[in-house]
Amino acid sequence: MNSFQLNLKTFIERSARYFPENEIISREPDDSLFRYNYAQYYERVQKLANVLKFLGIKKGDKIASFAWNNHRHLELYFGIPCYGAILHTVNIRYGEKEIAYAINHAEDEVVFLDKDLVPKMEAIAHKLLKVKAYVILDNTIPETSLSPVFSYESLLSSADHTYSFEELDENSPASICYTSATTGLPKGIVYSHRSIYLHASALCFTDVMGISEHDHILPIVPMFHVCAWGIPYAAIATGAKLILPGTRPKAEDLLRLIESEKVTFSAGAVTLGIDMLTILEEKKYNISSLRQLMLGGQAVPKALIDKYSQKHGVPIVQGFGATETSPIVTFFHIRRDQERLSDDQKNEIRSRQGMLLPGLEMKIIDELGKEVPWDDEHMGEILVRGPWIASEYFKDKRSSTSFIDGWWKSGDIATINEQGSIRIVDRDKDVIKSGGEWISSVQLENELMAHPDVLEACVVAVSHEKWLERPIACILLKNKEKGTTNVEEALVEWLTPKFPKWWLPDQFMFIEEIPKNANGKYNKNLLREIVSQSILSSPS
């Protein structure tokens, strides 16, 4: 066989050659839509490579993006790694400390940023050690203290429109992404051309996302978070129509795009899925074009799956993964022998995180290191290895506790059934250890969110003198004006037939908002602090 290097350049070269007229659409800050095609996109990517040369960027240099999901950010996705440099997608939702840490730790030399994010960058610019230039992703440069600063469009307009991308070693780094920094400083993961190529190819499998040239793809998941789950790479590899939601998209902005652009596949956080469903209950949007809506970041409640399926005919799908895994490890799949099941039974399967993708290895081990049986009862931690699974953190001593003998220890607790489909029970740090037994906060949350009065629910552990830990349920009601009178009794009544009595929360706290981390997941660390302080300050 030929020794052929797996390079990202082959994706854009293919889409530009075979699907030059297929569209890329980007929502602008003023809500208008910018449209161009793959041929024009490829030309701008080549111009970007010449801009990098002008800026003095060398192979192996790191370049930061600080941007929303838009067409210019998409140009960085390919222009930077195909040039031979390394793209660092900085999480714009980090606090100032984490942003400065990530840019310094990665040793970024240039920052490409959206105009509306300039104030956030100005606040930390004096802390950045290696950054030698800033490029505003716009036609104009706002008044700013950043220096030296360039306009992206001005640089592109004066650049040559052709560039010959050379073949790179497939194991050379293409991008860096940092974890969500829920506890401690964020940890960096380096993705190679090979790992991104293989992961994107796997997403196109029919039994995974099934992305093809026929699709209209809307990646809601931020492009600064695990390369938007690899979806932009798969979309461009296949020549799919790609719709980018732009600056600060709200749930209604997304619904408008789904309707107007006839989106067939979209992916984003569970919390946004909840927000969109809330709007759909009040306003009419046609989302029937969706063949799948993928929700992630946390386990998807079956009640949410049922509502999308029953009211809108949209199948919800999910999987399992993390920054360390590029991220997709498992994916929901209806097997051939399950096709004749009822819709409710199929939705039950959709509430699981699914089967392992081809090319990867996974095991679930108990506290003694033994693999758990495939009985969907025994719980254990998920360990994974494979060609798009990280082997270490970038310049970080914490690698030794997360990567053991080639396996990545996920910290996620799961069961696996006889067909090899996993169900995430909890994070190891979030499972409630009460009286020597484990209580799944995820299962309690899913059932609470199935109650008609509950919009969101988050269950956390609090210390208990006798049982070590006990569950407390934090509830966000759909109708806050209705009040909480009798609601707690109703929720206890709702949960009682579904769980052992000792699983039931000791207390229900009704709150105005459930805190979320930089990636839209429930921030249980912060919520535990809030709950503990509330309990301490309550009169005994």
Automatic annotation (TrEMBL):
PANTHER family: ACYL-ACTIVATING ENZYME (PTHR43859), BUTANOATE--COA LIGASE AAE1-RELATED (PTHR43859:SF4)
Name of the featured protein: Fatty-acyl-CoA synthase
Alphabetical GO biological process terms: fatty acid metabolic process
Domain AMP-binding enzyme C-terminal as annotated: residue spans: 444-521
Domain (AMP-dependent synthetase/ligase) ranges: 13-394
Key words, A-Z: Fatty acid metabolism, Ligase, Lipid metabolism
UniProt KW Lipid metabolism keyword: yes
Homology family: Belongs to the ATP-dependent AMP-binding enzyme family.
Highest rank taxon of the organism: Bacteria
Any GO MF annotation of the entry: ligase activity
